[in-house]
TrEMBL record:
Record-linked SUPFAM superfamilies: HCP-like, TPR-like
InterPro entries: Ctr9, TPR-like_helical_dom_sf, TPR_rpt
Protein name: Uncharacterized protein
Gene Ontology cellular-component terms listed: Cdc73/Paf1 complex
Length: 1091
């Protein structure tokens, strides 16, 4: 049994005090210590024993008494023990500041914590005044600074001790803790190892520090061994148990989770105030759905810890609990508190994600965007965060950016069907094609993964096909979503025997006997709730196919199983309205209002029906009720009230200008109210434009209509024919009839397939004002074809024919065809007005019988005048025809004469050209013939005269010279005549010289050929020369002699030497046939020609 001995003063006796039997009242032991003036170390031992026994008050009482001024004065020389007592008190108050008392309010806890830290600081400062260099005091100060979170100053305090004694174990442990808090895990680990080396018997807490450092460094197995060693040294070490439990939970395996939770439970049993164990237990109970335990554990954890990250986890667990229960206000507050305990988001990012979710739910999109972006910075590929950001950007109006994030999420995980589903829902309002592809991809991924495709996805696919007018595909998808059921029996016409003839009962759409009979006959009329929407959409599709009977049956199936399904009543009412059964339609809407008397859509529809039934007062009250049902937020009800005021201003009754202006102003106010709430509401803008047009502000209204038209054209969900009609009305009012006609025609074609009689009437009126009477009549005839019972159209057609006839007869010049057409139109007009006059219910159509009779009489009067004009026009036409015929005959005769002269001139010109061509050909042929004759005659003369030239060379030479002189004189006189021939001969010199030998060899043959020529050729030789331009006037006598035969030709050649005036042609050609110029060679060279 441990005990201490207090020496009795002035005696050798001692007072024995058993430490396990210390008195409950510390005053008793204090009296002994003071009376005997016991050493201060005994004071400290007894105080410490009280602390171990949990008697904290006694512990504090003894230490405070041991540090009182009296004790300080008495034990002034005892320095170490006094410092130890002061440091113990400082450590005690530091401990109180770290571990706050539970069950205290937050304000009280913070105040008490500060007070405890102040007390600890005072005691440490007092110890330092005794000995400023005492290591234990600096270690205590370091621990205090760590508890206050002043890590840098704490590290400095520990460093002061280590500089003096590098093996000081408490300082080493304190510095290791400081380095760990600074994130320097390697340095912290080295310090823990040094402490263990210096003092191997360190408590298990040192191994716990080593394990934590290795865990942070990723050395998990070594960390586990360190924690296990700490647990061996101290089986009740809560921190080691929690650390091992966390490591067991980390792999997220069933066995590990079970072991980890067992360790957490054991740690909680050992020390119920371990914040980390409390947090992990709360996390476990959160997933098991025991939220009351989560809240208790986290509140306890928050009460016992001041560690920021630990408190952040506690707040996060508490926020998650409230979040899962739908308490977004509280969860948001706790998420915010968790975030405030974190220095940087990467330390603990989950609260930011949860806070973003809550803010998104509460509509605080900007704050949610900021938090999700912080999450994305740390986890850039987190699909959930990307999808959330996509939704936020869409809500903020940044559609393209939202779609970008959604597409990125789908791209990161191409097998995430949910990502494609979210992407489709995001695109459904902006890009139906892309949305459809996204939903199809999601469906494919689900089927590949063996998952059942949700009905919602199939319904969305069907609706998108429906909006794209792909009705067959939409029907297939709807049927796939519905599967088997009673609807198949109904759609396959297997129950025709129960069908009710629509003409037999106006209450067909309210009849439910069909389905009761089916049940009586053994058919199962079951309709799961999750398929009601799909069946409703299928019925809506059948309406689009104009199969209203099948659609009504499906609507009635829905109502048979779910009588409170209001939309089915409204669709049946719409079908009845389309069949002009207003009474049944009103009854069906009232049935819907029995389910919910403040259903805005039903009230608005009832108001429309009452307005159509001309019950203006009821309609107004109904529209007001619809608006009040939504506190004025229902745009349709407000628009309907605006329309009511507009129609009230334009009623056909006797107008009151003030009342009309009041209604128009009220309508404008209501339209403006809707535009303030929804700036993109096209119908409100269209209504405002109508009011402005009625007030005469055509330019402003035209701008509004144009903008509405452009906006409506860019949306596949909006079909606004009214704005086209209104724009055409404005053009009409401004007198721009061409644009008005074009706008009416485009509206007819785009929205009504050219089958709307009312718009055709608008178009006819435009033609009428533009004085296009025939176009007006044709348009009215088209409208009459569409609405044959509309007497107004017939009356207008008669007026158009009457106006056309009157305008034609008023022309100063008109043709017989125009007059005949006028007569025909007047006859038709008389027939139309007579038919209208014969009607018995004219007043029902707004006609006045007297007015119609007036039109009949006026048309008959015009008809008589037209007949007179027709006879005159026909006579004038006959006369004009005769005059035209005579003029035509004259013109034909003149044309024939002109053509004859042109033909004659053409033939003369052609003949002249032919003669000229013939003459040219003859000249060319003659010239070629002369050339041949020249060549032949020259060759023959050479062969004949060569022997004679040999014998009489001298005499002949002299004679040639003499003759050559004569030729020279004669050539000079006829030089101009031969210039052309000489130029041609010069061009043939080279060729003649080359052919000279051939000519001599062929002399005989040439001579025979020439002898065979007839006398006519010989007699015309001179003519040929003349034609070739080679005749000579001096040689006419010689050429006159007969030369047709070879004998005469040779005789002429032989006598040429004795002739006084030789032929210039023969003189110039000599034997080689070369034509020479007199200036080319002197006379003495004439004898060299043979060479």
């Amino acid at each position: 049994m441990a005990c201490v001995y207090i020496p009795v003063q002035n005696s050798e006796e001692e007072v024995r005090v058993a430490l396990d039997q210390l008195p409950r009242d510390a005053s008793d032991i204090l009296d002994i210590l003071k009376a005997e003036q016991a050493p201060l170390d005994l004071w400290l031992i007894i105080a410490r024993e009280y602390f171990k026994q949990g008697k904290i008050e006694q512990f504090r009482q003894i230490l405070e008494e041991g540090s009182s001024p009296e004790i300080d004065e008495y034990y002034a020389e005892v320095r170490y023990e006094r410092i130890a007592i002061l440091n113990a008190l400082g450590a005690y108050y530091t401990y109180l500041g770290k571990i706050e008392t539970k069950n205290r309010k937050i304000e009280t806890k913070h105040r008490e914590k500060e007070e405890h830290f102040i007390m600890a600081t005072q005691y440490y400062n007092k110890a330092s005044r005794i000995d400023v260099h005492e290591p234990s005091t600096w270690v205590g100060k370091g621990q205090l600074l760590l508890a206050k979170g002043e890590v840098e100053q704490a590290s400095s305090a520990f460093k002061i001790v280590l500089d003096a004694d590098r093996d000081n174990v408490p300082a080493l442990l304190g510095q290791a803790c400081a380095e760990f808090n600074r994130g320097r895990f390697s340095d912290s680990l080295e310090l823990y190892k040094r402490a263990l080396q210096v003092y191997p018997d360190c408590p298990g807490a040192v191994r716990l520090g080593i394990g934590l450092c290795r865990y942070k460094l990723g050395q998990f197995e070594k960390a586990r061994r360190a924690f296990q060693r700490a647990l061996q040294l101290d089986p009740e070490n809560v921190e080691a148990l929690v650390a091992l439990a966390i490591m067991d939970l980390h792999p997220n395996e069933a066995s590990g989770i079970r072991k980890g939770m067992q360790k957490m439970q054991r740690a909680f049993e050992i020390y119920p105030y371990c914040a980390m164990a409390l947090n992990y237990l709360a996390n476990h109970f959160f997933f098991t759905g025991q939220h009351f335990l989560v809240e208790q554990l986290t509140e306890t954890a928050l009460a016992v810890t001041n560690h920021g990250p630990t408190k952040s986890h506690s707040y996060y667990n508490l926020a998650r609990s409230y979040h899962s229960k739908g308490d977004y206000e509280k969860s948001g507050l706790y998420y915010m508190a968790s975030v405030k305990e974190i220095n940087k988001p990467h330390e603990f990012i989950f609260p930011y994600y949860g806070l973003g979710q809550v803010q998104l739910k509460l509509g605080d999109f900007r704050s949610a965007l900021t938090n999700f972006e912080k999450v994305l910075e740390i986890y850039p590929d987190n699909c959930e965060t990307l999808k959330s950001l996509g939704h936020i950007y869409v809500q903020l109006g940044q559609i393209e950016k939202g779609q970008e994030f959604m597409k990125k999420a789908a791209k990161i995980d191409a097998r995430d069907a949910e990502a494609f589903t979210d992407l489709g829902e995001l695109l459904i309002s902006s890009d139906t094609s892309a949305a459809l592809e996204a939903f199809k991809t999601a469906r494919t991924l689900m089927k590949k993964g063996g998952q059942e495709v949700p009905i919602e996805v199939l319904n969305n696919i069907g609706v998108l096909h429906f909006e794209k007018e792909e009705f067959e595909l939409a029907q297939q998808v709807f049927m796939e979503a519905l599967g088997d059921g009673i609807w198949l029996t109904l759609l396959d016409n297997k129950v025709n025997i129960y069908a009710i003839d629509a003409s037999a009962s106006i209450l067909q759409y309210k009849d439910m006997q069909l389905f009761r009979r089916l049940e009586e006959d053994g058919h199962s009329v079951e309709l799961p709730w999750n398929k009601v929407t799909v069946l409703f959409n299928l019925a809506r599709l059948l309406e689009q196919f104009n199969n209203t009977e099948a659609a009504s049956i499906l609507y009635r199936v829905i109502l048979f199983k779910y009588p409170d399904y209001i939309d089915a009543y409204l669709r049946l009412a719409a079908i009845s309205k389309a069949r002009n059964n207003l009474q049944l339609s009103i009854e069906l809407v009232n049935e819907a209002l029995k389910v919910n008397g403040k259903y805005p859509t039903a009230l608005s529809m009832l108001g429309d029906l009452e307005l159509k039934n001309d019950d203006w007062v009821k309609a107004k009250e109904t529209f007001r009720a619809a608006s009040d049902a939504t506190d004025g937020k229902d745009s349709y009800a407000t628009l309907s009230l605006g329309n009511w005021n507009y129609y009230a201003a334009l009623r056909n009754e006797k107008r009151a200008p003030k009342l009309e202006a009041t209604h128009l102003e009220k309508a404008k106010e209501l339209y403006t109210r809707v535009l303030i709430q929804h700036t993109s509401n096209l119908y409100a803008a269209n209504g405002a434009g109508v009011v402005l047009a009625e007030k005469g502000h055509f330019d402003v209204s035209k701008d509004i209509f144009t903008q509405v038209q452009e906006a409506a054209s860019g949306s596949v969900f909006v079909q606004m024919a009214d704005v086209w009609i209104n724009l055409a009305h404005v053009y009409f009012a401004q007198g721009n009839f061409a644009l008005a006609v074009k706008m009416y025609q485009n509206c007819l074609r785009k929205f009504y397939h050219n089958t709307d009689a009312q718009i055709l009437l608008y178009l006819a009126r435009t033609h009428y004002e533009a004085e296009q009477w025939q176009d007006c009549k044709k348009t009215l005839l088209r409208a009459i074809h569409l609405a044959p019972s509309n007497y107004t159209l017939r009356f207008d057609a008669g007026v158009a024919m009457q106006k056309f006839s009157a305008s034609t007869l008023q022309k100063t010049k008109r043709t017989a065809d125009e007059v005949r057409s006028t007569v025909a139109e007047l006859e038709n007009a008389v027939r139309v007005f007579s038919q209208l006059s014969a009607g018995s219910n004219l007043h029902l159509h707004g006609f006045d019988e007297k007015k119609i009779n007036t039109h009949v009489e006026y048309c008959k009067h015009l008809l008589e005048a037209a007949k007179v004009h027709r006879e005159a026009a026909e006579r004038e036409e006959q006369q004009n025809r005769q005059r035209q015929e005579a003029a035509r005959q004259v013109a034909l005769a003149e044309e024939a004469r002109r053509k004859a002269e042109e033909q004659k001139k053409y033939l003369l010109e052609k003949r002249k050209q032919e003669d000229e061509q013939k003459r040219v050909r003859q000249l060319e042929e003659n010239f070629e013939r002369v050339k041949e004759q020249w060549k032949s005659s020259t060759s023959a003369s050479k062969r004949r005269e060569r022997p004679e030239n040999d014998d009489e060379e001298g005499g002949h030479s002299e004679k040639r010279r003499r003759k050559g002189g004569k030729r020279k004189r004669k050539d000079k006189s006829s030089r101009s005549r031969y210039e052309t021939q000489e130029e041609e001969a010069d061009m043939m010199d080279d060729q003649d010289e080359l052919e000279d030998e051939d000519a001599n060899m062929n002399y005989r043959e040439t001579t025979h050929q020439m002898d065979d020529q007839d006398d006519a050729a010989g007699e015309n030789a001179q003519d040929l020369l003349a034609a070739a331009g080679l005749e000579d006037s001096d040689a006419e006598d010689e050429m006159a002699a007969p030369s047709s035969t070879a004998v005469r030709r040779r005789q002429a050649l032989s006598e040429s030497d004795d002739d006084e005036q030789p032929n210039p042609i023969r003189d110039n050609t000599d034997s080689d046939g070369e034509v020479r110029d007199d200036n080319d060679k002197p006379d003495e060279d004439a004898g060299l020609d043979d060479d």
